[in-house]
Design brief:
The complex is a heterodimer of chains A (about 425) and B (about 600). Chain A has 19 helices and three strands. In chain A, strands 1-2-3 form a three-stranded antiparallel sheet. Chain A is mainly α and about 425 residues long. In chain A, strand 1 and strand 2 form a beta hairpin. Chain A is globular, with a radius of gyration of 22 Å. Helices cover about 40% and strands about 20% of the residues of chain B. In chain B, the strands form six sheets. In chain B, strands 2, 3, 4, 5, 10, 17 and 18 form a seven-stranded mixed sheet that branches. In chain B, strand 20 and strand 21 form a beta hairpin. In chain B, helix 3 crosses helix 4. Chain B is elongated. The chains are: A mainly alpha (about 425), B alpha+beta (about 600). The interface between A and B is large, with 44 and 39 residues.
Chain lengths: ~425, ~600
Amino acid sequence: MADIVKLRNYNWTLVALWLGLIATGLIAIYSATQGPVSKFLPSYIQINFYKQLISFGIAVIVLVGFQYINPRSFQEGSYIFYLLGLALMVLTLLVGKEVNGAKSWLDIGPVNLQTSELMKIATILAVANYLTSRRNISTENFKTALTTVLIILVPAVLVLLQNDTGSAIIFLSLIPVVLFWSGLPYGVSLFIISPAIIGYMSIIGWYWGLLAAVIISLLVFVLQRGTWLTFTSFVTGILLVIGIQVALFQVLQPHQRARIQAFTDPSFDPQGTGWNIIQAKTAIGSGGLYGKGYMEGTQTQLRFLPEQWTDFIIAVIGEEFGFIGTTVVVLLMLGFVLALLRAAALHKHPFAQLVFVGVTAMYAVHFFINIGSATALIPIIGVPLPFISYGGSALITNTLMFAICLNLDFYKRKFSIYR
Amino acid sequence: MKTMQHNKKKRTQISIRIFQTIIIFLGLIILGRLFQLQILEYDTYKPLSRQNALRQQTVNPARGLIYDRYGELLVDNKPIYSLTITPSSYDTSNTPILAGILGIPVAEVKKQVEEARAYSWHRASRFYTEIDFETFSKIQENIWQLPGIGHQIESKRHYPVDSLQASHTLGYLREISREEYLKQESYHLGDRIGKTGLEKEYESELKGAYGTDYILVNAMGQSLGSYQDGAIDEAPQKGANLQTTLDTELQLLAEDLMEGKRGAAVAINPQTGGILSIVSAPQFDIRRLSGRVDSDYWVQINTDPDNPLYNRAVSSKQPPGSTFKPLMGLMGLELGVITPKTTIYNPGYYSRGRRYNDLADPGHYDLGKAIQESSNTFFFWLMDKIVHSHSIDRWHELAASFGLGKPTGIDLPSEVSGILPDSSYLNNVLGEGTWGLGDQISLGVGQGFMATTPVQMAKVAAQIGNGGYRVSPHLVHAIKKSNGRVIYPNADTSKISWIDSKEIEVIKDGMRRVVKYGSGRYYADMDSIKIAGKTGTSQNPHGEDHGWFIAFAPVDDPKIAVAVLIENGGYGSISAAPVASLMIEKYLTREINRSRVYNYVKNFKYKSRNG
């Protein structure tokens, strides 16, 4: 079936970038678990490298296998996948295994499944299917928007119940992306992402939050010319700034507050919450331009880095390969998401476009949150770096999303299959 | 319919643009942040990661050694072997083996292991200290079956000359106190620091400089061996060695002679001011204060009524008594109050408002005879004339320039200035206008408000002996730094300006006559050596008087000057003079021929403190 003409139509750029990211990850995970550091690590962590290799093998099979699936089945099965995913999530909540404080693992025989990872794909497919079947979202038609929000909010709440804040944030970030893509007016879109911007600025300093609220309200007015929307935006902004101040000093649990404080001032608790961020920054910073050499990073190999095979993998790369290494990772990742976005732009079918956009957003948000955390640009939020961090479920489900995208991309000219 | 389709297409394009812009914008922020951390702040984070991974381990320097004037070693260092334990690598099933080698009950070793565990799991902590070399070797032989057990070699002070104490002079070390540690940042807690004697005075020289070993450590604090095979380790800098002016044999004799007595004996080279021997009796056993703290002994010497920790040679203040008379005579000559020929009649007392007693026989006295016979009358009269024709302040000025009433500056801690009264002193003590001639006249014979230390009197003897040249008593001749540099602390040997060499010859002659014909003739006179000296008895209202003797020899070209104080020894002629003369004999002939005098000193019937 694979004749040469067909193969040429594959998006090989994406495949190459995908392979590059996974290879980078394997190199870094090897150093982080099999390097000199291994003598300080328990054996169940040392074997993470080999587990990742196996996951990579499975990922390749998934990627190839998915190319044989009729693209229509993704759209047709999306609601079923969504419901199945929700069922798995609930099951996880009931009988799941707790790892690092998050109850997000389902133990099925030899396989440990992080159900929230699967749910990400199911949600994207379901939302894409739902929005494809509706007319454009406009200011007059908020019912569609609300349903969309609901589809995303249900799994978001479930992961929050699993105590996985990172994944919840990833889900929530889908909302503005898909709504905007589906035609939500610019001003309203800006309004709905404004809490994230104002919130971030408020953590740095309440005056920055206030400034952000004012500027955003002005922009909303310029874009939308709606007095009531501008007013709402402004009031929401002010309330948010006040709310965050209250939360920081009154509402938050001590450990949550400590995490925020560790972000604004790591030296506040250098042995406790601040430790992770200090060590990660030290690892990255001490790498310099060229790095300390493969498997020669003292931060990595002497066990100063926390979770160096997962959430802080960029610190391993930064320390051992320097700015050159981190730049390569950033460029690979940017290239990957921008290429996906381009594929979305070239596609004719709205379902496929929405899937592309949703998947792109998911990768990008993971990427920015992960590196932002490790470099102390934002408070530490535990999400993996896509394709690079250790984690079988994440690697396979991320590849699954990618496989679907490749499939949709490959069949984009065959309208008959879609309609 | 077509417009709508078109609008939708346009919107899609704009949305794509906006997404691209946001992604590139955030990507640039990330790249910028990485550039900031890895390129701009590299110099901040590089040392941080080094500090993380490297533990600096202080290497203590070897403390400087102390030698005598002939290069004989007086103080060196001896290793103390200690065992350390790293609980994380220690296997508790080995405890019986360990206990067997150490010869300590298993239960006790177990307790120590528990303590070490409580301290740190991964760090080595000291386990048994000052184990003897034999046990230490046995442990080393069996170290292969005792993982987690290590060793540490420290050092303590060791005194190679067997019976030599010189305890006040050499001094002892003690673990640095919290206050001292906080005061000076160049120390670490647990360091030992000189507390008395030369060890304290030359602490900064003897101490040396710490070295640093760099050890690779992981985040759990486990050490992983030396970093880059010690390429960046800094070797410790050995402390400077001290070459002292002490004569070990003379010091040994002086300690022997002063044994069982209370007092001090100071011998000094009158040409240089170098201390030949210096003893304060009773002494303490300096060997019992090195190494591990012997708390029983520490309590004992601290509560001993004879106060052995007190350095009488520099801290004890007593009236010099008649040993002050030679200097008195010199001042009388200088002030023109008398000439060598001035003669007065001594009826057996000096009468001025009241009678001042004199033990010397009645008769006519000139200065020479007055020194020889130690006539109080002559010096009462002389003092009377000095305060009348001049003033007590002028007298004070001359005596002060001779070195009384102020510290000699000897390189030992806790030296006192003694007391040399002047009018403001008497005003202070007695009240303005309430003191009179009587308070001043008794100063003429070294009594009353005067007080001197043995080292001051040794200085006086030396300065008379050398013809009026200033000596600065000192113990350290040379400081030999580990880098080969040698420092010679300079000693003042300038002429005392008001001394006239002809006049001082009169005094020296008088002092020679003291030994030949006067009170020194019983125990201080020898045919072989021409000694000049002066006895003294310092009145003690609390009990038996204290005996003094100052001397120098040979009289024509003095090589040694001595001052001896025997507390409650009675007359200086029978208590202090024999000690001083034996020291002179020993120093100049290297032996003691007068066993009669030696035995006399050794069997000296010592009077109790309270008479």
